[in-house]
Amino acid sequence: MNYLITGGAGFIGSHLTEKLINTGHNVTILDNLSTGRLTNLSSIKNKKKIKFINTDISKKGSWTNYFRNIDCVYHLAALADIVPSINFPERYFKSNVEGSLNVVQACRKFNIKKLIYAASSSCYGIPKKYPTSEGEKINTLYPYALTKYMGENICLHWGKLFRIKTVSLRLFNVYGTRSRTSGTYGAMFGVFLAQKLYNKPYTIVGNGNQTRDFTYVSDVVNAFIKASRVKSSIKIYNVGSGKTISVNRIIKLLGGKNKIHIPKRPGEPDTTFADITKIKKELNWKPKIPIKKGIKFLLKDINYWKKAPIWTPKKIEKATEDWFKYLK
Length: 328
Prior knowledge:
The chain is an alpha/beta fold. It has helices spanning 11-22, 82-87, 89-109, 143-161, 188-197, 217-227, 247-254, 277-283, 291-300, 313-319, 321-327; strands spanning 2-6, 26-31, 50-54, 72-75, 114-120, 165-171, 174-175, 202-205, 211-212, 215-216, 234-239, 245-246, 259-262. It folds into two domains: 2-174 and 214-239, 3-Layer(aba) Sandwich (Rossmann fold); 181-212 and 242-269 and 290-327, UDP-galactose 4-epimerase, domain 1.
């Protein structure tokens, strides 16, 4: 089959690309390399099955022509992380909302039959129920969450209207090799791995007792592939491990005793915990990589984070000023 992946050189996108190529498919990648890397694709042996286009989907252009003769579109391209979304909300709107609109318009133009969207569990905000199901009340607390949820609605609405089989996967705390190393303050594992690599203290938010539903990237890739086989028209699924683990426990698994506690942040849930009953039942999908095994994979590939920024309490305090200012 012929697949198109927006953001295919990024963290999840590169793993998805690799999986599809290794199972005999052709992949067209649209990526502006704002957070992705071409080196993320270096382990793929059969380069003839990849077509890479450096382009920005938030801007209209001839890139839409690459949707011709595509069997399924995976829309992963987006700006992530909370902090920069508060500082630069317009960038997130252009990337995550206008970009999604441009993608679904291209799907409509070239009669794409299937569209899979990478949504975010941040749309739930601070849920009232745990584990959290797809029916939980939506409560977007910052621009990243809002724009990802708007992108989801655009994909689902266009899908229903123009008869594109559309699946939205709400991802919970995805981690794994090749996760982002951008200059913005963001994902916990990226911060911790750089600190470990350079023997710096782990910066733990609050008391570290907060728990997260960490989902290994290969499990997420399998969910995307399963989603592309859905025969129904419009579906939303949570993608998580179905378990939670504390940040303090993560520190122990990473190794190292040197740590510093920084102030607890407003607007962050004490727990993320996915109810994955629906996706297990309807897609016959379940996570396979336990957290201990996933962390071993990370530590084996720790040199990937050599160029990642090293975050100190002072740098974090400066980076999160607007977070505390507007979400308190």
